[in-house]
Structure formats: C-alpha cells, structure tokens
Write a structure and sequence with these properties.
Blueprint (H helix, E strand, L loop, with lengths): L5 H16 L6 H8 L3 H7 L3 H12 L3 H10 L6 H23 L6 H14 L4 H16 L9 H18 L12 H16 L2
Helix pairs in contact: 1-2, 1-4, 1-6, 5-6, 5-8, 6-9, 6-10, 8-9, 9-10
C-alpha cells in the first residue's frame, strides 16, 4: 500500500495529537515523529505550528468558510431559515471538533498571546466566521428577506456563539441529559434567531 504524501501525514498526525493532548502540548517535534518524518521536513510544508493549526482547521475539520462565502454570493432558492440551520449544523460540528484542540491554549497565557499574534498575521482567527456570516446576513437584508433594521453582526455573533457554547457545554460528560441532536438544535436555533430579524 502506497504511503500518504508527507504533508497529508503531517496534517493527520497534527490533528490526532491536537485532539488528544491539546494544541499547547503538541510540539512540532512530536507531530513530525508521529508523521514519520523529520522536524525539518515538517517545516518545509508549514512555516510554524500556528500555520499547521490553521491548516488542520481548514483541511481536517468541517469547513464553514466555503458555505458562508457561497451563501453570501448567492443565497439560492432555499429559505433564510434553511440556510441558517445549515450554517448552524456545520458550525456545531466545527466547534465540537475545534474546541478540544484549542482549549489548552487558555492555560498558557504567553502561548495564547503568541498564537493570537500569529493568527492576526495570517489574517485569520475566531472572528472570521462571524464576519463571514455577517456578510451573508447583510446580503439577505439587502435582498429584503430579513428586516431592514436587523443588526446582522449581532445576529451572526448570537448564532455562532450558541454553536460554540453547545460544544463547550457538552464537551463534559458530567451532565445526565444527552445533548439535543445537532439537527434539532440547529433548526431551533435558526427559527429563534430568525424570529428576531425576520422582515
């Protein structure tokens, strides 16, 4: 059986380690070792651990960005409620997978600051999906499908914030109640949000 290309092996190893031991503890040396390559080979593909983290988010986790860009350009024939439910479903899956990876950053202030500085240099970060959803909602507002005075940025923040909070709340096994299924949660969230911004 043919071995995967080095870049793909590095991404797989980084994803696995970031999920199991967290971003803070997953060193490039350990990632390279798990990928079966040298640390120098890793740096041929990724300039930094932060760049590798962004690649993991973009290539190994559910992709929210392309959906938001497509909907902003053309909301299509579906209702705003259906579009918002689809966004919420994908966001729930994205945050459920990214939360365990990034959570360890909050335990190390210096590392978190360095990580945030790197994200800013690369033009990415947790604000990007909110801004992209805001762009989509403004397109819907311009098309007359939501209220002309709707605060689209607040609505985007509410929807994605709820999805991120769901990942945080159900990451623990402490609760006795199983979480509401993602599809039900996403549809209910879309309906509730839309009730506040509907035309």
């Amino acid at each position: 059986m043919q071995q995967k290309p080095t870049r793909a092996r590095i991404l797989d190893a980084a994803h696995d380690l970031m999920l199991t031991i967290g971003l803070a503890r997953a060193t490039t040396k350990e990632i390279a070792k798990a990928a079966g390559c040298s640390e120098a080979a890793l740096y041929k593909h990724f300039a930094s651990k932060e760049e590798l983290f962004v690649a993991v988010l973009q290539e190994r986790l559910p992709r929210l960005g392309p959906l938001l860009r497509r909907l902003a350009e053309d909301p299509g024939e579906r209702s705003v409620a259906d579009n918002l439910a689809e966004i919420a479903r994908l966001a729930c899956h994205f945050y459920a997978q990214s939360f365990p990876i990034a959570a360890s950053l909050y335990a190390e202030t210096k590392l978190k600051r360095r990580h945030e500085d790197s994200m800013q240099e690369m033009g990415t970060g947790p604000h990007v999906p909110i801004e992209a959803l805001d762009t989509y909602l403004r397109a819907e507002r311009d098309a007359g499908r939501i209220a002309p005075d709707a605060d689209t940025f607040a609505a985007a923040s509410l929807l994605l914030g709820a999805c991120a909070q769901r990942a945080f709340a159900y990451d623990s096994t402490v609760g006795k109640q199983p979480p509401q299924p993602v599809d039900e949660f996403a549809a209910a969230l879309a309906r509730t949000l839309l009730a506040g911004i509907r035309r």
